[in-house]
Automatic annotation (TrEMBL):
Protein name per its UniProtKB record: Pectinesterase inhibitor domain-containing protein
Signal peptide stretch: 1-23
Occurrences of domain Pectinesterase inhibitor (ranges): 30-184
UniProt entry keywords in alphabetical sequence: Disulfide bond, Signal
Gene3D superfamilies registered for this protein in UniProt: Invertase/pectin methylesterase inhibitor family protein (1.20.140.40)
Amino acid sequence: MASSNNGVSALFLFAVLLIAVSQQPQLATGINSSVYGACKTIAGGSGLIGVTFCIDALSSDNRSSNVGSYKEFAVIAVDLLTANATSTKSEIDGMLRNGGGGGAGATTRCLQSCQAVYGGILQGQAAVGAAVKGGRFQEAISSLEKSARAVKECQDGFGKSNVTSPLSVENDDAFQLAELIVLLIRDEP
């Protein structure tokens, strides 16, 4: 009888472990536990960015597999924001060269405004990267919050002009990346 109870107990324990593992599907599919832990901690209750966005963004860079601190994750996110801004500015340049994203005057004006926003972000990114690497977090936060506000204004400009934004995804990504960096460096011990 005792061996029967031990068998049931072992089976029960195995079932509990299976349930626990299934409650963390990101880890089961190969997400780096450091990325998952950092994202769950900083993005989980932020209301600014989603945990999934954080995981997807940081996991997109191979360097994240060897990271030991939030500051190192922030350096990666700075590079991701720089890449986003570079790509988005190039996309805007192309739209303006080809008639302003549909030819509507309002769309062209909004794109020109966004072109200036992304140009400004790019001008400041080297200083943001240096500030993060140098531990001058307040300096980096100030610049990043300015960038996040500017991207939000870029997106809002389309709505105010009653035209569809061709940059919704890019603007959302840039906003979330800027806020991700801020959250990472605010939580850096």
